[in-house]
Protein backbone atom coordinates (compact mmCIF):
# COMPACT_ATOMS: atom_id res chain seq x y z
CA UNK A 1 0.00 0.00 0.00
CA UNK A 2 1.28 3.47 -0.94
CA UNK A 3 0.74 5.98 1.86
CA UNK A 4 0.16 8.73 -0.71
CA UNK A 5 -2.97 6.83 -1.84
CA UNK A 6 -4.00 5.58 1.59
CA UNK A 7 -6.49 7.25 3.91
CA UNK A 8 -4.76 7.72 7.26
CA UNK A 9 -5.48 11.20 8.66
CA UNK A 10 -3.05 11.54 11.57
CA UNK A 11 -3.35 14.38 14.08
CA UNK A 12 -0.64 16.29 15.94
CA UNK A 13 -2.85 17.32 18.86
CA UNK A 14 -4.68 15.08 21.30
CA UNK A 15 -8.50 15.17 21.22
CA UNK A 16 -9.84 17.36 24.01
CA UNK A 17 -12.19 14.65 25.31
CA UNK A 18 -9.73 11.74 25.35
CA UNK A 19 -9.41 10.12 28.79
CA UNK A 20 -7.10 7.20 28.07
CA UNK A 21 -4.01 6.74 25.92
CA UNK A 22 -5.75 4.19 23.71
CA UNK A 23 -8.51 6.66 22.91
CA UNK A 24 -6.02 9.45 22.21
CA UNK A 25 -3.60 7.40 20.11
CA UNK A 26 -6.22 5.56 18.06
CA UNK A 27 -7.77 8.89 17.11
CA UNK A 28 -4.47 10.69 16.52
CA UNK A 29 -3.15 7.72 14.53
CA UNK A 30 -6.12 7.74 12.16
CA UNK A 31 -7.57 4.40 13.31
CA UNK A 32 -10.98 5.56 14.55
CA UNK A 33 -13.24 8.61 14.51
CA UNK A 34 -15.97 9.46 16.98
CA UNK A 35 -19.51 9.58 15.58
CA UNK A 36 -21.27 10.11 18.93
CA UNK A 37 -20.55 9.34 22.58
CA UNK A 38 -19.55 5.67 22.67
CA UNK A 39 -19.99 5.20 18.90
CA UNK A 40 -17.01 5.08 16.52
CA UNK A 41 -16.17 4.63 12.85
CA UNK A 42 -13.17 2.45 11.98
CA UNK A 43 -10.91 4.02 9.37
CA UNK A 44 -8.79 1.84 7.04
CA UNK A 45 -5.94 1.41 9.54
CA UNK A 46 -8.37 0.53 12.31
CA UNK A 47 -10.28 -1.85 10.09
CA UNK A 48 -7.06 -3.71 9.22
CA UNK A 49 -6.36 -4.20 12.93
CA UNK A 50 -9.93 -5.37 13.55
CA UNK A 51 -9.67 -7.86 10.70
CA UNK A 52 -6.47 -9.33 12.13
CA UNK A 53 -7.95 -9.68 15.62
CA UNK A 54 -11.07 -11.23 14.08
CA UNK A 55 -8.96 -13.68 12.07
CA UNK A 56 -7.12 -14.90 15.16
CA UNK A 57 -10.35 -15.27 17.14
CA UNK A 58 -12.06 -17.08 14.26
CA UNK A 59 -9.13 -19.47 13.76
CA UNK A 60 -9.09 -20.43 17.44
CA UNK A 61 -12.87 -20.94 17.50
CA UNK A 62 -12.71 -23.11 14.39
CA UNK A 63 -9.78 -25.07 15.83
CA UNK A 64 -11.96 -26.37 18.69
CA UNK A 65 -14.83 -27.26 16.38
CA UNK A 66 -17.12 -24.24 16.86
CA UNK A 67 -19.48 -23.46 13.99
CA UNK A 68 -19.87 -19.88 12.78
CA UNK A 69 -23.28 -18.38 12.09
CA UNK A 70 -24.84 -14.92 12.16
CA UNK A 71 -27.87 -13.91 14.19
CA UNK A 72 -30.03 -10.78 14.00
CA UNK A 73 -29.16 -7.71 16.01
CA UNK A 74 -32.85 -6.87 16.47
CA UNK A 75 -34.36 -9.27 19.00
CA UNK A 76 -38.03 -9.47 20.05
CA UNK A 77 -38.76 -8.49 23.64
CA UNK A 78 -40.83 -11.64 24.25
CA UNK A 79 -37.89 -13.99 24.55
CA UNK A 80 -36.13 -11.66 27.01
CA UNK A 81 -39.28 -11.32 29.09
CA UNK A 82 -39.59 -15.10 29.34
CA UNK A 83 -36.10 -15.36 30.88
CA UNK A 84 -36.65 -12.33 33.10
CA UNK A 85 -33.74 -10.41 31.65
CA UNK A 86 -35.90 -7.68 30.08
CA UNK A 87 -35.84 -6.15 33.56
CA UNK A 88 -32.60 -7.72 34.84
CA UNK A 89 -30.37 -6.18 32.21
CA UNK A 90 -31.30 -2.71 33.36
CA UNK A 91 -31.11 0.64 31.57
CA UNK A 92 -28.10 -0.41 29.48
CA UNK A 93 -30.42 -2.42 27.22
CA UNK A 94 -31.39 -0.48 24.08
CA UNK A 95 -35.17 -0.94 23.79
CA UNK A 96 -37.52 0.36 21.12
CA UNK A 97 -40.86 -0.25 19.43
CA UNK A 98 -41.50 -0.77 15.74
CA UNK A 99 -44.34 0.92 13.83
CA UNK A 100 -46.73 -1.77 15.08
CA UNK A 101 -45.81 -1.05 18.72
CA UNK A 102 -43.97 -4.37 19.09
CA UNK A 103 -41.06 -4.19 21.53
CA UNK A 104 -37.50 -5.03 20.48
CA UNK A 105 -33.95 -4.71 21.76
CA UNK A 106 -30.69 -4.15 19.93
CA UNK A 107 -28.94 -7.21 21.29
CA UNK A 108 -26.36 -6.70 24.03
CA UNK A 109 -25.85 -10.48 23.91
CA UNK A 110 -27.61 -13.47 22.31
CA UNK A 111 -28.37 -16.20 24.86
CA UNK A 112 -32.14 -15.94 24.30
CA UNK A 113 -31.79 -15.73 20.54
CA UNK A 114 -29.51 -18.75 20.12
CA UNK A 115 -31.65 -20.87 22.46
CA UNK A 116 -34.82 -19.93 20.59
CA UNK A 117 -33.05 -20.59 17.28
CA UNK A 118 -32.03 -24.17 18.04
CA UNK A 119 -34.77 -25.37 20.36
CA UNK A 120 -36.97 -26.85 17.64
CA UNK A 121 -34.12 -28.16 15.49
CA UNK A 122 -31.59 -29.68 17.89
CA UNK A 123 -33.83 -32.56 18.89
CA UNK A 124 -31.63 -35.53 19.73
CA UNK A 125 -28.80 -36.27 22.13
CA UNK A 126 -26.97 -37.62 19.07
CA UNK A 127 -26.56 -34.03 17.80
CA UNK A 128 -24.80 -32.94 20.98
CA UNK A 129 -22.48 -31.45 22.06
CA UNK A 130 -22.37 -28.59 19.60
CA UNK A 131 -21.03 -25.02 19.75
CA UNK A 132 -22.06 -22.04 17.62
CA UNK A 133 -20.41 -18.63 17.44
CA UNK A 134 -20.80 -15.33 15.66
CA UNK A 135 -18.79 -12.13 15.29
CA UNK A 136 -21.30 -9.33 15.35
CA UNK A 137 -22.12 -5.84 16.61
CA UNK A 138 -23.55 -5.46 20.11
CA UNK A 139 -25.30 -2.52 21.76
CA UNK A 140 -25.34 -1.34 25.36
CA UNK A 141 -26.61 2.09 26.32
CA UNK A 142 -23.86 2.93 28.79
CA UNK A 143 -24.92 5.61 31.24
CA UNK A 144 -21.56 7.29 30.71
CA UNK A 145 -19.82 6.08 27.56
CA UNK A 146 -16.13 6.86 27.93
CA UNK A 147 -12.60 5.60 27.39
CA UNK A 148 -13.03 5.31 23.61
CA UNK A 149 -13.50 1.68 22.56
CA UNK A 150 -13.31 0.38 26.13
CA UNK A 151 -16.77 1.51 27.19
CA UNK A 152 -18.79 2.05 24.05
CA UNK A 153 -22.46 1.87 23.26
CA UNK A 154 -21.75 -0.02 20.03
CA UNK A 155 -18.97 -2.59 19.81
CA UNK A 156 -17.86 -5.71 17.96
CA UNK A 157 -17.92 -8.98 19.85
CA UNK A 158 -17.47 -12.68 19.30
CA UNK A 159 -20.08 -14.63 21.23
CA UNK A 160 -20.29 -18.42 21.33
CA UNK A 161 -22.87 -20.79 22.81
CA UNK A 162 -22.56 -24.50 23.52
CA UNK A 163 -25.24 -27.16 24.08
CA UNK A 164 -24.71 -30.36 26.07
CA UNK A 165 -26.35 -33.42 27.59
CA UNK A 166 -24.20 -33.41 30.72
CA UNK A 167 -22.16 -31.15 32.96
CA UNK A 168 -19.10 -33.28 32.18
CA UNK A 169 -19.52 -32.45 28.50
CA UNK A 170 -19.90 -28.75 29.35
CA UNK A 171 -16.73 -28.93 31.44
CA UNK A 172 -14.78 -30.24 28.44
CA UNK A 173 -15.98 -27.46 26.14
CA UNK A 174 -15.40 -24.87 28.88
CA UNK A 175 -11.82 -26.13 29.17
CA UNK A 176 -11.40 -25.98 25.38
CA UNK A 177 -12.64 -22.38 25.37
CA UNK A 178 -10.32 -21.50 28.25
CA UNK A 179 -7.40 -22.89 26.23
CA UNK A 180 -8.55 -21.14 23.04
CA UNK A 181 -8.82 -17.79 24.82
CA UNK A 182 -5.34 -18.26 26.28
CA UNK A 183 -4.02 -18.92 22.77
CA UNK A 184 -5.73 -15.79 21.44
CA UNK A 185 -3.90 -13.69 24.04
CA UNK A 186 -0.60 -15.46 23.42
CA UNK A 187 -0.83 -15.08 19.63
CA UNK A 188 -1.23 -11.34 20.12
CA UNK A 189 1.68 -11.13 22.62
CA UNK A 190 -0.72 -9.80 25.26
CA UNK A 191 0.11 -10.17 28.94
CA UNK A 192 -3.02 -11.41 30.64
CA UNK A 193 -4.69 -12.96 33.69
CA UNK A 194 -7.47 -15.56 33.57
CA UNK A 195 -9.41 -14.98 36.79
CA UNK A 196 -12.57 -16.03 38.62
CA UNK A 197 -15.34 -13.63 37.69
CA UNK A 198 -18.88 -12.61 38.59
CA UNK A 199 -21.56 -13.97 36.26
CA UNK A 200 -23.70 -10.82 36.46
CA UNK A 201 -26.80 -10.59 34.28
CA UNK A 202 -25.59 -13.49 32.10
CA UNK A 203 -26.09 -15.92 34.96
CA UNK A 204 -24.74 -19.40 35.53
CA UNK A 205 -22.62 -20.81 38.32
CA UNK A 206 -19.04 -20.49 37.08
CA UNK A 207 -17.14 -17.92 35.06
CA UNK A 208 -13.61 -16.84 34.16
CA UNK A 209 -12.59 -13.45 32.85
CA UNK A 210 -9.60 -12.89 30.57
CA UNK A 211 -8.01 -9.60 31.54
CA UNK A 212 -5.24 -7.75 29.73
CA UNK A 213 -2.84 -6.13 32.17
CA UNK A 214 -2.76 -2.34 31.81
CA UNK A 215 -2.06 0.41 34.33
CA UNK A 216 -5.14 2.32 33.17
CA UNK A 217 -7.42 -0.72 33.26
CA UNK A 218 -10.94 -0.58 34.66
CA UNK A 219 -10.80 -4.01 36.29
CA UNK A 220 -9.11 -4.63 39.63
CA UNK A 221 -7.50 -8.05 39.83
CA UNK A 222 -6.78 -9.63 43.21
CA UNK A 223 -4.17 -12.37 43.05
CA UNK A 224 -2.04 -14.52 45.29
CA UNK A 225 1.64 -15.00 44.48
CA UNK A 226 1.76 -18.02 46.79
CA UNK A 227 -0.93 -20.32 45.39
CA UNK A 228 -2.04 -18.63 42.13
CA UNK A 229 -5.57 -17.66 43.19
CA UNK A 230 -6.87 -14.76 41.09
CA UNK A 231 -10.24 -13.05 40.74
CA UNK A 232 -11.78 -9.74 39.75
CA UNK A 233 -12.86 -7.53 42.62
CA UNK A 234 -16.44 -8.18 41.46
CA UNK A 235 -16.00 -11.78 42.58
CA UNK A 236 -12.94 -11.90 44.85
CA UNK A 237 -13.24 -13.70 48.16
CA UNK A 238 -10.92 -13.51 51.15
CA UNK A 239 -10.15 -15.35 54.36
CA UNK A 240 -11.83 -13.46 57.21
CA UNK A 241 -9.37 -12.69 59.98
CA UNK A 242 -11.33 -10.68 62.51
CA UNK A 243 -10.35 -11.37 66.12
CA UNK A 244 -13.27 -11.98 68.42
CA UNK A 245 -13.76 -9.11 70.85
CA UNK A 246 -13.38 -9.95 74.53
CA UNK A 247 -15.01 -6.70 75.50
CA UNK A 248 -18.11 -6.98 77.68
CA UNK A 249 -21.37 -5.67 76.29
CA UNK A 250 -22.15 -2.16 77.44
CA UNK A 251 -25.52 -0.53 77.87
CA UNK A 252 -27.07 0.66 74.63
CA UNK A 253 -27.25 4.46 74.48
CA UNK A 254 -28.93 6.84 72.04
CA UNK A 255 -26.83 9.99 71.54
CA UNK A 256 -27.50 13.15 69.59
CA UNK A 257 -25.30 13.59 66.50
CA UNK A 258 -26.52 16.84 64.88
CA UNK A 259 -25.99 16.90 61.10
CA UNK A 260 -23.56 13.96 61.32
CA UNK A 261 -24.50 11.81 58.33
CA UNK A 262 -21.26 10.19 57.17
CA UNK A 263 -18.89 7.72 58.79
CA UNK A 264 -16.20 10.41 58.76
CA UNK A 265 -18.48 12.93 60.49
CA UNK A 266 -19.63 10.48 63.14
CA UNK A 267 -16.12 9.16 63.75
CA UNK A 268 -14.75 12.64 64.41
CA UNK A 269 -17.77 13.78 66.44
CA UNK A 270 -17.85 10.74 68.75
CA UNK A 271 -14.08 10.26 68.85
CA UNK A 272 -14.20 6.64 67.66
CA UNK A 273 -12.34 4.82 64.88
CA UNK A 274 -14.21 4.33 61.60
CA UNK A 275 -13.76 0.60 62.10
CA UNK A 276 -15.90 0.79 65.24
CA UNK A 277 -18.84 2.20 63.27
CA UNK A 278 -21.24 -0.07 61.37
CA UNK A 279 -22.75 1.35 58.19
CA UNK A 280 -26.35 0.47 57.35
CA UNK A 281 -27.01 0.41 53.61
CA UNK A 282 -30.48 -0.09 52.17
CA UNK A 283 -31.06 -1.84 48.84
CA UNK A 284 -34.16 -2.28 46.72
CA UNK A 285 -34.87 -5.39 44.64
CA UNK A 286 -37.61 -7.65 43.40
CA UNK A 287 -38.65 -8.64 46.91
CA UNK A 288 -38.61 -5.15 48.38
CA UNK A 289 -35.95 -3.53 50.52
CA UNK A 290 -33.22 -5.04 52.68
CA UNK A 291 -30.65 -3.53 55.01
CA UNK A 292 -27.02 -4.61 54.74
CA UNK A 293 -24.46 -3.88 57.45
CA UNK A 294 -20.70 -3.50 57.00
CA UNK A 295 -17.85 -2.09 59.03
CA UNK A 296 -17.45 1.65 58.56
CA UNK A 297 -13.97 1.50 57.04
CA UNK A 298 -15.04 -1.01 54.37
CA UNK A 299 -17.18 -0.93 51.22
CA UNK A 300 -19.92 -3.24 49.94
CA UNK A 301 -19.29 -4.90 46.58
CA UNK A 302 -22.73 -4.79 45.02
CA UNK A 303 -22.00 -7.55 42.49
CA UNK A 304 -21.44 -9.97 45.40
CA UNK A 305 -24.66 -8.77 47.01
CA UNK A 306 -26.65 -9.30 43.79
CA UNK A 307 -25.13 -12.76 43.44
CA UNK A 308 -26.10 -13.68 47.01
CA UNK A 309 -29.71 -12.61 46.50
CA UNK A 310 -29.86 -13.90 42.92
CA UNK A 311 -31.31 -10.56 41.88
CA UNK A 312 -29.59 -8.49 39.20
CA UNK A 313 -32.13 -5.68 39.68
CA UNK A 314 -30.87 -5.04 43.23
CA UNK A 315 -29.67 -1.44 43.66
CA UNK A 316 -29.17 1.18 46.35
CA UNK A 317 -32.55 2.47 47.45
CA UNK A 318 -33.25 6.07 46.55
CA UNK A 319 -33.45 8.60 49.43
CA UNK A 320 -37.20 8.99 48.93
CA UNK A 321 -37.66 5.19 48.92
CA UNK A 322 -35.74 4.91 52.19
CA UNK A 323 -37.73 7.69 53.83
CA UNK A 324 -41.02 6.26 52.62
CA UNK A 325 -40.22 2.69 53.72
CA UNK A 326 -38.34 3.25 56.97
CA UNK A 327 -39.36 6.78 57.97
CA UNK A 328 -35.76 7.88 58.50
CA UNK A 329 -33.44 9.81 56.15
CA UNK A 330 -30.18 8.35 54.90
CA UNK A 331 -27.39 9.11 57.34
CA UNK A 332 -29.24 7.94 60.45
CA UNK A 333 -30.25 4.45 59.38
CA UNK A 334 -29.54 1.51 61.65
CA UNK A 335 -30.64 -2.07 62.33
CA UNK A 336 -32.24 -1.46 65.72
CA UNK A 337 -35.97 -1.25 65.14
CA UNK A 338 -35.60 -1.43 61.34
CA UNK A 339 -38.76 -2.75 59.69
CA UNK A 340 -37.00 -4.77 57.01
CA UNK A 341 -34.71 -7.83 56.84
CA UNK A 342 -31.17 -7.15 58.11
CA UNK A 343 -28.12 -8.88 56.63
CA UNK A 344 -24.55 -8.30 57.77
CA UNK A 345 -21.09 -8.69 56.33
CA UNK A 346 -18.67 -11.01 58.12
CA UNK A 347 -16.65 -7.98 59.21
CA UNK A 348 -19.38 -7.17 61.77
CA UNK A 349 -19.75 -10.64 63.30
CA UNK A 350 -17.01 -10.40 65.96
CA UNK A 351 -17.57 -6.73 66.80
CA UNK A 352 -18.87 -5.48 70.17
CA UNK A 353 -20.19 -2.15 71.37
CA UNK A 354 -20.23 -0.45 68.01
CA UNK A 355 -21.94 2.65 66.62
CA UNK A 356 -25.01 2.42 64.37
CA UNK A 357 -27.61 4.85 63.12
CA UNK A 358 -30.33 5.68 65.64
CA UNK A 359 -33.29 5.27 63.25
CA UNK A 360 -34.07 8.81 64.35
CA UNK A 361 -32.92 11.97 62.62
CA UNK A 362 -29.73 13.44 64.17
CA UNK A 363 -29.20 10.46 66.50
CA UNK A 364 -26.91 7.42 66.64
CA UNK A 365 -26.68 4.48 69.00
CA UNK A 366 -23.44 3.69 70.78
CA UNK A 367 -22.67 0.29 72.31
CA UNK A 368 -24.90 -1.59 69.88
CA UNK A 369 -24.58 -5.38 69.79
CA UNK A 370 -26.19 -7.88 67.46
CA UNK A 371 -28.24 -10.72 68.94
CA UNK A 372 -28.99 -8.53 71.97
CA UNK A 373 -30.23 -5.38 70.21
CA UNK A 374 -31.26 -6.72 66.81
CA UNK A 375 -31.25 -9.92 64.79
CA UNK A 376 -29.21 -10.64 61.66
CA UNK A 377 -31.00 -12.73 59.02
CA UNK A 378 -27.71 -14.05 57.60
CA UNK A 379 -23.98 -13.41 57.76
CA UNK A 380 -22.59 -12.94 54.26
CA UNK A 381 -19.40 -11.92 52.45
CA UNK A 382 -20.15 -8.71 50.56
CA UNK A 383 -16.95 -6.81 51.31
CA UNK A 384 -14.90 -5.27 48.51
CA UNK A 385 -11.66 -7.22 48.76
CA UNK A 386 -8.53 -5.05 48.71
CA UNK A 387 -4.78 -5.55 48.61
CA UNK A 388 -3.52 -7.08 51.83
CA UNK A 389 -6.65 -9.11 52.54
CA UNK A 390 -5.86 -12.78 53.01
CA UNK A 391 -6.12 -15.27 50.14
CA UNK A 392 -9.21 -17.49 50.57
CA UNK A 393 -7.18 -20.52 49.46
CA UNK A 394 -3.91 -20.27 51.37
CA UNK A 395 -4.11 -17.20 53.64
CA UNK A 396 -1.25 -15.34 51.95
CA UNK A 397 -1.79 -11.54 51.56
CA UNK A 398 -3.42 -10.70 48.23
CA UNK A 399 -1.97 -8.24 45.74
CA UNK A 400 -3.68 -6.16 43.07
CA UNK A 401 -3.13 -5.31 39.43
CA UNK A 402 -5.14 -3.25 36.97
CA UNK A 403 -6.52 -4.82 33.83
CA UNK A 404 -8.95 -4.60 30.94
CA UNK A 405 -11.48 -7.37 30.40
CA UNK A 406 -11.40 -8.71 26.83
CA UNK A 407 -13.10 -12.08 27.23
CA UNK A 408 -15.34 -14.01 29.61
CA UNK A 409 -16.60 -17.59 29.66
CA UNK A 410 -19.63 -18.90 31.56
CA UNK A 411 -21.21 -22.17 32.59
CA UNK A 412 -24.91 -21.39 32.21
CA UNK A 413 -26.41 -24.73 33.12
CA UNK A 414 -30.12 -24.88 32.24
CA UNK A 415 -31.02 -21.26 33.05
CA UNK A 416 -32.10 -20.41 29.49
CA UNK A 417 -33.18 -23.80 28.16
CA UNK A 418 -35.64 -24.41 31.00
CA UNK A 419 -37.24 -20.98 30.77
CA UNK A 420 -37.46 -21.08 26.97
CA UNK A 421 -38.63 -24.72 26.83
CA UNK A 422 -35.60 -25.83 24.84
CA UNK A 423 -35.40 -29.60 25.21
CA UNK A 424 -33.77 -32.54 23.48
CA UNK A 425 -34.69 -36.22 23.53
CA UNK A 426 -32.18 -38.24 25.54
CA UNK A 427 -31.11 -41.84 24.90
CA UNK A 428 -33.82 -43.12 27.25
CA UNK A 429 -36.53 -41.28 25.31
CA UNK A 430 -37.10 -38.60 27.95
CA UNK A 431 -37.06 -34.85 27.26
CA UNK A 432 -34.35 -32.89 29.02
CA UNK A 433 -33.29 -29.23 28.93
CA UNK A 434 -30.02 -28.39 27.21
CA UNK A 435 -27.07 -27.74 29.50
CA UNK A 436 -25.42 -24.62 28.11
CA UNK A 437 -22.29 -22.52 28.16
CA UNK A 438 -21.54 -19.11 26.65
CA UNK A 439 -18.27 -17.46 25.74
CA UNK A 440 -17.68 -13.81 24.80
CA UNK A 441 -14.66 -12.02 23.33
CA UNK A 442 -14.51 -8.26 22.76
CA UNK A 443 -12.96 -7.83 19.31
CA UNK A 444 -13.01 -4.02 19.15
CA UNK A 445 -12.17 -3.85 22.85
CA UNK A 446 -9.02 -5.90 22.20
CA UNK A 447 -7.74 -3.18 19.88
CA UNK A 448 -7.89 -0.60 22.66
CA UNK A 449 -6.57 -3.02 25.29
CA UNK A 450 -3.50 -3.79 23.18
CA UNK A 451 -2.76 -0.07 22.85
CA UNK A 452 -3.16 0.43 26.61
CA UNK A 453 -0.60 -2.31 27.18
CA UNK A 454 1.84 -1.25 24.47
CA UNK A 455 2.62 2.42 23.83
CA UNK A 456 5.33 4.96 24.55
CA UNK A 457 5.74 8.74 24.36
CA UNK A 458 5.82 8.57 20.55
CA UNK A 459 2.71 6.49 19.93
CA UNK A 460 1.40 2.95 19.59
CA UNK A 461 3.60 -0.16 19.61
CA UNK A 462 1.54 -2.86 17.89
CA UNK A 463 2.18 -6.57 18.40
CA UNK A 464 3.16 -7.99 15.03
CA UNK A 465 0.12 -10.27 14.79
CA UNK A 466 -2.38 -7.41 14.83
CA UNK A 467 -0.36 -4.50 13.41
CA UNK A 468 -2.04 -2.85 10.39
CA UNK A 469 1.19 -3.45 8.44
CA UNK A 470 4.35 -5.33 9.39
CA UNK A 471 6.78 -3.00 7.64
CA UNK A 472 6.80 0.68 6.71
CA UNK A 473 9.34 1.87 4.15
CA UNK A 474 10.06 5.53 4.72
CA UNK A 475 11.37 7.28 1.61
CA UNK A 476 12.82 10.39 3.20
CA UNK A 477 12.89 12.52 0.05
CA UNK A 478 10.56 11.42 -2.75
CA UNK A 479 12.06 14.13 -5.00
CA UNK A 480 15.26 12.10 -4.97
CA UNK A 481 14.70 9.65 -7.83
CA UNK A 482 17.21 7.10 -6.49
CA UNK A 483 15.55 7.00 -3.04
CA UNK A 484 12.11 6.61 -4.60
CA UNK A 485 13.32 3.90 -6.98
CA UNK A 486 14.94 1.86 -4.19
CA UNK A 487 11.92 2.37 -1.93
CA UNK A 488 9.52 1.10 -4.60
CA UNK A 489 11.75 -1.86 -5.42
CA UNK A 490 11.97 -2.84 -1.75
CA UNK A 491 8.21 -2.43 -1.45
CA UNK A 492 7.61 -4.84 -4.35
CA UNK A 493 10.18 -7.32 -2.98
CA UNK A 494 8.79 -7.47 0.55
CA UNK A 495 5.15 -7.66 -0.48
CA UNK A 496 5.88 -10.37 -3.04
CA UNK A 497 7.49 -12.40 -0.26
CA UNK A 498 4.60 -12.19 2.17
CA UNK A 499 5.49 -9.18 4.32
CA UNK A 500 2.63 -6.67 4.57
CA UNK A 501 4.34 -3.43 3.67
CA UNK A 502 3.35 0.24 3.56
CA UNK A 503 5.57 2.65 1.65
CA UNK A 504 5.57 6.26 2.78
CA UNK A 505 5.89 8.10 -0.51
CA UNK A 506 4.16 11.30 0.60
CA UNK A 507 5.57 14.68 -0.31
CA UNK A 508 6.17 15.73 3.28
CA UNK A 509 9.32 16.11 5.37
CA UNK A 510 11.26 13.11 6.61
CA UNK A 511 10.72 14.20 10.22
CA UNK A 512 6.96 14.24 9.70
CA UNK A 513 7.12 10.73 8.24
CA UNK A 514 9.17 9.40 11.15
CA UNK A 515 6.69 10.83 13.67
CA UNK A 516 3.75 9.29 11.82
CA UNK A 517 5.48 5.91 11.59
CA UNK A 518 6.05 5.90 15.35
CA UNK A 519 2.52 7.14 16.03
CA UNK A 520 0.78 4.36 14.11
CA UNK A 521 3.14 1.77 15.57
CA UNK A 522 4.20 -0.46 12.66
CA UNK A 523 6.72 -3.04 13.98
CA UNK A 524 9.58 -2.48 11.48
CA UNK A 525 10.67 0.72 9.76
CA UNK A 526 13.04 0.67 6.80
CA UNK A 527 14.46 4.09 6.03
CA UNK A 528 15.63 4.93 2.53
CA UNK A 529 17.50 8.20 3.02
CA UNK A 530 20.99 9.68 3.24
CA UNK A 531 22.62 6.32 3.98
CA UNK A 532 21.73 5.30 0.42
CA UNK A 533 24.76 7.31 -0.75
CA UNK A 534 26.84 4.52 0.78
CA UNK A 535 24.53 1.83 -0.58
CA UNK A 536 22.76 1.28 2.74
CA UNK A 537 19.23 1.35 4.07
CA UNK A 538 18.47 1.63 7.78
CA UNK A 539 16.21 -0.75 9.68
CA UNK A 540 14.72 -0.20 13.12
CA UNK A 541 12.13 -2.04 15.23
CA UNK A 542 9.40 0.10 16.77
CA UNK A 543 10.25 -0.97 20.35
CA UNK A 544 14.03 -0.51 19.99
CA UNK A 545 16.47 2.36 19.61
CA UNK A 546 18.99 0.22 17.71
CA UNK A 547 19.42 0.96 14.01
CA UNK A 548 20.68 -1.78 11.69
CA UNK A 549 22.27 -0.86 8.37
CA UNK A 550 21.92 -3.28 5.46
CA UNK A 551 24.05 -2.90 2.34
CA UNK A 552 22.34 -3.21 -1.04
CA UNK A 553 25.28 -4.39 -3.11
CA UNK A 554 23.83 -7.89 -3.34
CA UNK A 555 20.37 -6.69 -4.36
CA UNK A 556 17.34 -6.77 -2.08
CA UNK A 557 17.57 -10.33 -0.74
CA UNK A 558 19.70 -9.12 2.18
CA UNK A 559 17.01 -6.63 3.20
CA UNK A 560 14.31 -9.29 2.94
CA UNK A 561 16.36 -11.70 5.06
CA UNK A 562 17.13 -9.01 7.64
CA UNK A 563 13.47 -7.92 7.78
CA UNK A 564 12.30 -11.47 8.39
CA UNK A 565 14.90 -11.97 11.09
CA UNK A 566 14.09 -8.74 12.89
CA UNK A 567 10.34 -9.34 12.76
CA UNK A 568 10.76 -12.89 14.06
CA UNK A 569 12.79 -11.50 16.97
CA UNK A 570 10.24 -8.73 17.65
CA UNK A 571 8.69 -9.40 21.04
CA UNK A 572 6.81 -7.06 23.34
Q: What can you see in these coordinates?
A:
The protein is an alpha+beta fold and 572 residues long. 27% of the residues lie in helices and 28% in strands. It has 15 helices and 31 strands. The strands form eight sheets. Strands 3, 7, 8, 9, 10, 11, 12, 21 and 24 form a nine-stranded mixed β-sheet that branches. A five-stranded mixed β-sheet has the order 16-14-15-17-20. Helix 1 packs across helix 12, helix 2 packs antiparallel against helix 6 and helix 2 (44-63) crosses helix 12. The relative contact order is 0.14. The model has no long low-confidence stretch (mean pLDDT 94).
Topology:
Elements: H1 21-28, E1 32-36, E2 39-42, H2 44-63, E3 67-68, E4 74-76, H3 77-83, H4 85-88, E5 94-97, E6 103-106, H5 111-118, E7 130-139, E8 154-164, H6 167-187, E9 192-196, E10 206-213, E11 219-223, E12 230-232, E13 253-256, H7 263-270, E14 278-285, E15 288-295, H8 302-309, E16 315-316, H9 319-326, E17 342-345, H10 346-349, E18 354-357, E19 363-368, E20 378-380, E21 399-413, H11 415-419, E22 423-425, E23 431-433, E24 435-442, H12 443-453, E25 455-456, E26 459-460, E27 471-475, H13 481-496, E28 501-504, H14 510-520, E29 524-528, E30 536-541, E31 548-551, H15 557-569
Parallel strand pairs: 3-7, 15-17, 17-20, 27-28, 27-29
Antiparallel strand pairs: 1-2, 4-6, 5-6, 7-8, 8-24, 9-10, 10-21, 11-12, 11-21, 13-19, 14-15, 14-16, 18-19, 21-24, 22-23, 25-26, 29-30, 30-31
Amino acid sequence: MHWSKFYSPTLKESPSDSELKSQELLIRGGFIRKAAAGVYSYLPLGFRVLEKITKIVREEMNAIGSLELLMPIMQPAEIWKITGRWEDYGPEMVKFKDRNKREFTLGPTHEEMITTLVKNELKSYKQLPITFYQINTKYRDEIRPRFGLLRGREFIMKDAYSFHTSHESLDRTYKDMYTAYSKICERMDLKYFAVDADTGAIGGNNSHEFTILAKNGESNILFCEQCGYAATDEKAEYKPDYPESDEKMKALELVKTPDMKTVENVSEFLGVEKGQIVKSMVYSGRKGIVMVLIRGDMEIKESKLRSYFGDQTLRKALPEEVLDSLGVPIGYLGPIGAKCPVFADLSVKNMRNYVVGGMKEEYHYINANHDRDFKVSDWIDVKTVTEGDLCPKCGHPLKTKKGIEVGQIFKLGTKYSEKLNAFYVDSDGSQKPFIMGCYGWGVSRTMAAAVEQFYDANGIIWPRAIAPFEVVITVVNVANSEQLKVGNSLYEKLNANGLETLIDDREVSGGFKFKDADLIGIPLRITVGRALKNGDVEMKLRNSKDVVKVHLEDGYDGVLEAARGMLNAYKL
